[in-house]
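Consider the following input, taken from an annotated entry for DUF2087 domain-containing protein (Promicromonospora citrea).
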Amino acid sequence: MTTEPNPTEQLPGDPERFLRNGRLEGMPRRWRDKLAVTRYLAARAMPVLLEPFTERELTDRLSELAQDPAGLRRAMVDQGLVQRTRDGAEYWRTERTEYDHP
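Applying the prediction step yields:
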């Protein structure tokens, strides 16, 4: 006998399992979990590809989603999800993720 999966259960790879009340309190230790969380939060904070944000605007958006918005912003840049101007004044998301709405 098989049972139907419960749609409210979080899947093992679900990045939301690392959030508390919708907010990231600390980056996961495992690399694949870090990637998933960063990709998920990038899609939430910057839903439109190539839409530019000032450093302050992006930090404000990320502070609603994470305890360490600067660290999260840095992770997004390091992973190639987000690019920035040479002086760091403007940021934009360049990569579509599996967490984007179609």
